[in-house]
Design brief:
Chain lengths: 317, 374
């Protein structure tokens, strides 16, 4: 039983960043802008917020500091994403290219600034954010141990973001407009929706969420930030496609990835799995093979936004 | 018609000018920031960099090999107020390494420090091409493509007794009361393997001294030197099991292990340099003194006694491996215990097996159970 608790706790560290970032990607792509810059935006968000944390380490309550850092990460990610928005909405540039530019710029920028101010490219932080046990909730039998022990506040922020993001895109006027701009911007424009504004909003929100995903990724898994998020931005892109651009499916996909990743990296510490006569390479391959198999079955009815990747031009109807 | 066309062109010009201006200002901004960085270093372009280092995979501040060697170069050149510079190859290949080394030599380098066995072939090539330039290669010896070793008079090959450093760490951990040990190496390259083998044998030696036989060691190679959540989860699963201390001999991936140790409230052992300042969970570090040895060789070079053509084996007898006892967080293991075992190693009283044995399970150990996790 304690192994199950452990697995669930570890899964959170993998799944939550993927979930947040993939939801961010959803907002951008369903407004019609392909966003492969998620990796770069994650790096930027993580970089600025870790910098913030290391500067104000002792100034306040650690949980408050982490929440502020999440806000800082969101803001910096959002602002950084505006470059992508400007290039792909105003300048009508190829969205893949401007996304790649952001991906290449972010780590270089992070290393350069960190070296200039700190001497090394690593930004260390002291982890005071780890929650051994959430008061009251952590004492609930079973559920308490599953979800409210050995956790970070970013986990709960992640769930909150999921609920809000899913609600907004499905049930609000803004959500409807956003979706329409990704499906048929000309039609949306004809009823008086400003496609440019909506797309700006979509990319900005995706930047905010990707930035938050960056800090949610770094805090639980390392003791310093070295200008990398280990390709998790691209993995989030896979989760987005795997989840068919729909929030609930993204949720399932993110946790599917998380569980597979957890098992493939922790099997050596789990007696039942370790004794199975399966070579470790199989475990390492497992998440990707499973993804391939699932995609084979589901990619037939891909539900990608129809106007995705096409710059909106008022003149062409 | 013509008027319209002219207007149109004017318009385009205006647009272009705007963009060009925008672009120019961006470049200016970058240049400004760039200059700011350089002035700090106090270096200008006309200077000749007589002492150069070419980095191995990883960065100059990797808290490990490159950094250690570079600190040695810097310590020496700052003492004498000489200019030094490091060069970073664009990729991990013999060609790229040689290009960087040539660049260093063109920049006036008289001594090129090459940290890492990946330089074996590049140094072999260039030591013939540039007989007047001295090469210092760490943890490797120059050889041709078909492994014919040849150290010319302008090259010195330095090997560290990593197995001794690992031995000390394993010995100290068991002496300090740990019974369930773990070893996580990055990739099974010779230095990492030697660290790991030494660790196992050190633990075994301590178990023999204490007369216990319940010491267990989990042993694995992660397959990468980079930090990642996967490596963190792997370490966390070991800590969640019965492992109490993990010796992370894996560069940046060590930080993933460190994180897992912090969250689990357990211990880890650092590598190469003293990592105690990075986390409370670091009980000690298995160090090899890269900086000191590079510094010493540069000193010899200046005196005209460059140990060219030699293969140096640096270990406990010259004080080039060890544990940082001042910053270690041991409960029982004392400085006296340390000095005793250190002397034994320095006097070669203990025979430590090295990477000549292909698998860790092939090591001759009596008291510890080694479980190789693939």
């Amino acid at each position: 039983m304690s192994i199950l608790y452990f697995l669930v706790q570890q899964t959170m560290f993998f799944s939550i960043p993927l979930l947040i970032v993939a939801l961010g990607g959803m907002y951008s792509e369903r407004s019609g802008i392909v966003n492969i810059a998620l990796e770069g935006i994650m790096i930027m968000g993580a970089f600025v917020s870790v910098f913030f944390i290391s500067s104000y380490n002792d100034a306040m309550n650690p949980q408050l500091l982490l929440i502020l850092a999440v806000l800082v990460a969101g803001l910096s990610g959002g602002v950084f994403a505006l470059f992508h928005a400007f290039a792909s909405i105003n300048l009508k540039a190829d969205q893949v290219i401007s996304g790649t530019a952001l991906n290449m710029f972010a780590p270089a920028f992070a290393i350069f600034i960190a070296r200039t101010f700190g001497g090394t490219q690593y930004i260390q932080f002291v982890d005071k954010f780890h929650i051994v046990k959430v008061p009251v909730l952590g004492s609930i039998p079973i559920v308490g141990r599953l979800f409210f022990q050995n956790a970070y506040i970013t986990t709960y922020i992640g769930f909150l973001i999921f609920i809000v993001a899913a609600f907004v895109i499905k049930y609000t006027r803004f959500g409807l407009r956003l979706r329409s701009c990704g499906e048929h911007p000309q039609a949306a424009d004809s009823v008086g929706i400003n496609v440019y504004k909506i797309r700006y909003a979509g990319v900005f929100i995706s930047g905010i969420l990707a930035g938050i995903g960056g800090i949610a990724f770094v805090i639980p898994t390392s003791t310093n930030f070295d200008a990398s998020v280990a390709g998790y931005g691209f993995l989030a892109l896979a989760v987005l496609i795997f989840g068919q651009w729909r929030s609930n499916k993204i949720f399932i996909a993110a946790f599917f990835f998380g569980i597979m990743k957890t098992i493939s990296s922790t099997y050596s510490g789990i007696p039942i799995l370790k004794d199975l006569p399966i070579p470790n390479e199989i475990y390492k391959m497992a998440p990707y093979i499973a993804t391939l198999v699932v995609l084979v079955f589901f990619s037939k009815k891909s539900q990608a936004p129809r106007a995705e990747g096409i710059p909106y031009d008022k003149g062409s109807r | 018609m013509i008027k319209e066309a002219v207007n149109y062109i004017k318009n385009i010009k205006g647009e272009c000018m705007k963009k060009i201006l925008c672009f120019m200002s961006m470049i200016l901004a970058v240049v400004f920031v760039g200059c700011g960085g350089k002035e700090e270093g106090g270096a200008s372009k006309t200077k000749v960099y007589e002492y150069a280092l070419v980095t191995d995979v990883g960065t100059i501040d990797d808290k490990s090999f490159n950094q250690g060697a570079w600190e040695g170069v810097q310590a020496y050149t700052k003492e004498k107020n000489l200019p030094a510079k490091y060069y970073k190859p664009i990729e991990k290949s013999d060609e790229a390494y040689m290009t960087s080394m040539r660049l260093a030599i063109k920049g006036g380098a008289k001594v090129v420090v090459c940290p890492g066995f990946l330089f074996e072939n590049p140094v072999w090539n260039l030591q013939q091409e540039y007989p007047d330039v001295k090469f210092i290669i760490l943890d490797g010896a120059p050889h041709s493509g078909n492994y014919k070793y040849d150290i010319k008079d302008n090259t010195v090959a330095v090997f560290y007794a990593d197995q001794q450093a690992g031995f000390l760490a394993g010995y100290a951990a068991v002496k300090d009361g740990y019974r369930n040990l773990g070893f996580m190496g990055g990739i099974a390259v010779p230095p990492v393997v030697n660290f790991g083998y030494g660790y196992v044998q050190g633990a075994d030696y301590a178990a023999k001294e204490l007369g216990i036989d319940d010491v267990k060691i989990k042993y694995t190679y992660l397959g990468s030197f980079g930090p990642s959540p996967e490596n963190m989860a792997k370490a966390a699963s070991w800590y969640n099991g019965d492992t109490d201390v993990i010796f992370a001999c894996a560069g940046g991936a060590g930080n993933s292990v460190m994180k897992a140790a912090e969250t689990a409230g357990k211990a880890m052992i650092g590598v190469d340099v003293d990592q105690s300042s990075e986390s409370e969970s670091v009980i000690t570090s298995s160090m090899k003194n890269l900086g000191k040895s590079v510094h010493d060789i540069l000193n010899l070079y200046e005196k005209g006694e460059f140990p060219g053509g030699q293969m140096l084996r640096l270990g406990a007898e010259s004080g080039n491996v060890g544990l940082p006892m001042e910053t270690s967080r041991f409960k029982k293991f004392t400085k006296d215990d340390y000095d005793m075992i250190y002397d034994k190693i320095a006097n070669n009283e203990i025979e430590i097996q090295t990477n000549l044995i292909p698998e860790v399970t092939g090591l001759k150990v009596d008291k510890v159970q080694v479980e190789l996790v693939k």
